[in-house]
Structures are given as C-alpha cells and as structure tokens.
Design a protein that fits this description.
48% of the residues lie in helices and 0% in strands. The protein contains three helices and no strands. The longest helix has 12 residues.
Length: 69
C-alpha cells in the first residue's frame, strides 16, 4: 500500500500556449509596421540608430523620438 506522501502529484503544465500568448498580445498591444527608405529617410534612420546606440530597443527608440518632438 502506498502512503499519501509517496503518491505522484499530477504534472503541472510548464509553458504557456502560443494561443494564450497571442490572445494577451492582441488585447494589450497595438502593432504598427514601419518601413523607411534608406536615402530619403536617412535622417530618421540616423536618429533611431543614435537612440539604439544608447541601449534602447528599436520600439523604445521610436517612442523616445516621438515623445521628445
């Protein structure tokens, strides 16, 4: 006879499904795609690159530039 202490506990799920993650992201975030022309938008690209050089992620760099203008 097995004691209660030695009985196996049901395994817990160790990861979150992609469906749950995508549902959370859709509810929480608004996504925009941005394409810049290398020649015509070189000034904008340079500003984003300068922010990234400070250690910001691309989305943080763009937010900083928009909020500081």
């Amino acid at each position: 006879m097995k004691s209660i202490e030695n009985q196996e506990k049901p395994k817990r799920k160790t990861h979150t499904s992609n469906e749950v993650i995508l549902r959370y992201q859709k509810k929480t975030y608004q996504q925009y795609a941005l394409k810049l022309r290398k020649v015509e938008d070189a000034d904008i690209i340079a500003m984003i690159d300068a922010e990234r050089a400070k250690g910001y992620q691309t989305s943080e760099a763009i937010k900083n530039l928009i909020r500081n203008k």
